[in-house]
């Protein structure tokens, strides 16, 4: 897997541990000469990840929606820029351009991206998985809810077909190799 999409927070007001874990992942991407495919923002985990990745040799592909450009929120680290008209277009481009998706901690946008990928996989549009990087147990509640969906038969297939979980950088990188 050479092109790795990462969904994550654009917030700067989060705990430092999340920034550190984003930087660690970015360093690994660069050291292993991977492409980072991400939302192209110059804030939050997005910028921390991209800065570390580029400082360590990764190529950076930003998929930038029009609104991000209008608000001056585009990272200056991008090697390749895809312009998207909206968030739906952005998700489709990121999915198309990557081999696998990693979900770092994030908010509503990250959830939207994760569910977009999993829903498309569930009906056969692709076979790509999301890897939840469960930093500090961030995804535990969501993972429990996904399990409940299975237990109550609100999904037709095991959701593990569409995602994996990594609790440490070592677990994550094993899944990405």
Q: What is the general shape? A: globular
State the name of the first-level CATH class: Alpha Beta
Radius of gyration: 15 Å
> How many angstroms separate the termini?
7 Å
CATH topology: Rossmann fold
| Low-pLDDT residue spans | none
The amount of helix comes to 40-55%
Main beta sheet, described? 7 strands, parallel
- Sheet with most strands: strand arrangement: 4-3-2-1-5-6-7
Strand content: 15-25%
Overall pLDDT score: 96
Q: Count the helices. How many?
A: 7
- How many strands? 7
How many discrete structural domains? 1
Q: Which sequence of SSEs, written as H and E, runs from N to C?
A: EHEHEHEHEHEHEH
EC number: 3.2.2.n1
Catalytic activity: AMP + H2O = D-ribose 5-phosphate + adenine
GO molecular function, one term: AMP nucleosidase activity
GO biological process, one term: cytokinin biosynthetic process
Short key terms for the protein model shown above:
177 residues; Rossmann fold; seven-stranded parallel beta sheet; hydrolase
Short description:
Its EC number is 3.2.2.n1. With 177 residues, the chain is α/β, with parallel strands linked by helices.
Description:
By secondary structure, the chain is an alpha/beta fold. The chain has a single domain (3-176), classed as Rossmann fold (3-Layer(aba) Sandwich), CATH 3.40.50.450. It is 45% helix and 19% strand. It has seven helices and seven strands; from the N terminus they run βαβαβαβαβαβαβα. It has helices spanning 16-31, 44-55, 66-70, 87-97, 108-122, 140-151, 169-176, and strands at 3-7, 35-38, 59-65, 80-84, 100-103, 130-133, 163-166. Helix 1 runs parallel beside helix 2 (44-55). The longest helix has 16 residues, at 16-31. The model has no long low-confidence stretch (mean pLDDT 96).
């Amino acid at each position: 897997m050479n092109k790795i999409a990462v969904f994550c927070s654009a917030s700067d007001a989060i705990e430092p541990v999340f920034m550190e874990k984003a930087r660690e992942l970015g360093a690994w991407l660069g050291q292993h000469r991977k492409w980072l495919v991400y939302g192209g923002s110059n804030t939050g985990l997005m910028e921390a990840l991209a800065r570390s990745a580029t400082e360590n040799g990764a190529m950076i592909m930003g998929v930038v929606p029009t609104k991000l450009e209008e608000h001056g929120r585009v990272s200056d680290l991008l090697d390749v820029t895809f312009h998207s008209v909206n968030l739906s277009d952005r998700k489709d481009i990121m999915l198309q351009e990557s081999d696998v998706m990693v979900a770092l901690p994030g908010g509503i946008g990250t959830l939207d991206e994760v569910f977009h990928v999993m829903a498309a996989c569930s009906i056969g549009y692709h076979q790509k998985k999301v890897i939840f990087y469960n930093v500090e147990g961030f995804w535990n509640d969501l993972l429990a809810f996904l399990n409940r969906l299975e237990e109550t038969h609100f999904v037709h297939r095991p959701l593990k077909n569409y995602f994996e979980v990594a609790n440490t950088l070592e677990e994550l990188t094993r899944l990405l190799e």
